[in-house]
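Bug #77: duplicate submission created two jobs. Keeping one. Sequence:
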Amino acid sequence: MSQRRNSGDPSDLPPPYEEVVGRPSGQPRPTQHNSKPQPLPPRPNAHSNSLPTYSVPASSSVSVPQKADDMYTANLALPWRYPKDFFCKKCRNTGYKMGSPEKKCKRCWKQFEPKPKPIVYKRPPSNVVPLPPGARIVSPMPMGMPLSGAPGAPMRPMVVHPGHPSIGGVLCQNCGGRGIVSFFLDQETCRTCGGIGRVFPAYAS
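Kept job's structure:
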């Protein structure tokens, strides 16, 4: 007669339910020497660094198309736009000579520079007395005061800058009404207007 097994022995207990369900069919039941349940595999961590990373491509910059008139002009600061299929070998459509950016391309400026409309005056104002050529400030006489001056208080001339409309004539196109022109790294008095910024054409009576 066989002896009754000791119920207090842990090796006599049945295996856990998870082990029986997870064991594939046909696998022999563990013996009493290997009845301890096998540890379950570790669960993947949601915050593990082993997860695949995906790189988001950077958004490409959208290029704004230029105007059709600006496509053939290398210097958009010019007062004109080069026409289609025109290319200047001296300035490469920049308006200034290559290697000498302070020198204008005479061919392009002569051909494409906008010509201002001439302003015709009937006669210059009689109350304006321009200074000799080379002066930077022009002091015309006040309105209504005779040239000889009234006895007593001295006349106070009105000071205006070169190119002021009260001088009369038309704006000097050589200096733009400034009375001076750039010469290399220096400035000199405009020889066309004599420094007053305005000229009196022959058709002005």
